[in-house]
Amino acid sequence: MQELNKLWQQLMDKLELSVSNVSFVMWFKPLKVVDFSDNKTLFLSTKSSFAKNQILKNYFDKLKSGVEEIFGEGVEIEILDPNEEKDYLTKNKPNLTKNDVETTKNPFNPKYTFGNFVVGKCNQTVYAASRAVAENPGKSFNPLFIYGGVGLGKTHLLHAIGNYIREASPQMKVKYVTCEQFTNDYIESLGSSIKNKTNSQFREKYRNVDVLIVDDIQFISKKTSTQEEFFHTFNDLYQFGKQIIIASDRPPKDIETLEDRLRSRFTMGLIQDLQPPDFETRVAILRKKCQLEKCSITDEALNFIADHVDSNVRELEGMLSKVCFLSNLIGKNEADINDVREAFSDKYDEKNEGGSNADQIIKAVCDYFDISKDDITGKKKNKEIVEPRMIAIFMISEMLELPLVTIGKIFGGRDHTTIMHSRDKISSEIKTNRKIQTFVSEIKKMLKSG
Ligand code: ADP
Ligand code: MG
């Protein structure tokens, strides 16, 4: 069974790379192995007869050649729609449960490789450090601590390291978790009645690895017991020369809840930051994505996107997908500047109906909170000023999508990371904090009514 899981995962990885993201998610990802007990025919189930027909019509050749390459020459494929699957399962009793196939899922996204990571000035040192660690786990920089703003490629690099090690040294045990998973696992292990047993299971899981990768460590909770457990895990692994790689949206010194002894552990190795990509890198990233997603776009359109989306790579990608989607929808082979205009116009309309500019937004925020423009753009640090300032920064960034550096200039020459921090803080608070929601929506109303 183990073998079948592995083969299936290999097939999925291969297919994921050979078609567009949308096609993969729509057609291949939902496929499940129903039976392969005779080693001759791979019975697969689909979610609907429509999906079955689509696969037969458009993707069967890809599927077939993948299956032959990975499962062996001459292996046949039978695709079953849900009714056929039911029939099949009542007539045959294959020795296989769904879980069998899911358990060994590769934790690493096959698209997040070093090869697919575009290297520019903004990220070349982090890239080099990540490669060094992947090529020589435990022997170059330990721990490697990567930090940088949202959507700048931290998770991509962590996966690239994981993918690399899995391929180059398959015998190594690589564990990837988000900080949240680590915390949940730990809390779960405490909750069990047979405490010692689960505790040792927890330890087994985290300390019996050659490489531990922890994403988004900034979420490490204030719960000292979780930090304590992480501290011991860290020490244990470190002592035995195991590699530890950590990503965070800020440097260790700025993770407020972090205990000093952990902070000092994090600074023992190499700390590297990812900067937002410059224009050339953004263009190169867009080109790479076009190649991966198999979409084509004119240079003019591509440059326009690179010029107008500069906050992070995730948004850059999102805009490209949208543009390609719109152009596909009307049957064009190549997206052009008209598709870009359409994609952008949507965005501006919904966000900034009144067409306000930065000055107007700042004025509205100042009026609303009854503070002066000098204060809001100045250096004062009291709460009555800081919160409105962050709200104004957030609104300008959301509504006008100005580059962070430009917003920094408007706010008295602040650094772009400060701007990013303010924006991200409000953008996450607004999801749950009623007060902030009300402030923003009332200020927007003021802007609309002029
Ligand atoms: P983070 O974890 O820093 O928030 P991610 O690693 O999730 O960001 O990156 C967001 C998206 O941007 C991903 O799809 C990733 O592949 C892409 N990306 C980021 N940086 C690069 C780069 N230098 N080259 C190619 N793709 C990138
Ligand atoms: Mg991430």
Give a brief rundown of this model.
The protein contains 21 helices and eight strands. The chain is an alpha/beta fold and 450 residues long. Helix 6 runs parallel beside helix 7, helix 8 (179-191) packs antiparallel against helix 9 (195-207) and helix 16 (358-369) crosses helix 21.
Q: How are the SSEs placed, and which strands pair?
A:
Layout: H1 2-18, H2 21-28, E1 32-35, E2 41-45, H3 49-71, E3 76-80, H4 82-91, H5 98-102, H6 124-135, E4 144-148, H7 154-168, E5 174-178, H8 179-191, H9 195-207, E6 211-215, H10 224-239, E7 243-248, H11 260-266, E8 270-274, H12 279-293, H13 299-308, H14 313-329, H15 337-351, H16 358-369, H17 373-377, H18 383-400, H19 404-410, H20 416-429, H21 434-448
Parallel strand pairs: 2-3, 4-7, 4-8, 5-6, 6-7
Antiparallel strand pairs: 1-2
Helix pairs in contact: 1-2, 1-3, 6-7, 8-9, 12-13, 12-14, 13-15, 14-15, 16-18, 16-21, 18-20, 19-20
Bound molecules: adenosine-5'-diphosphate and magnesium ion.
Based on the model shown, name its key terms.
450 residues, alpha/beta, 5-stranded parallel beta sheet, 3-stranded mixed beta sheet, 21 helices, 59% helix, binds adenosine-5'-diphosphate, binds magnesium ion
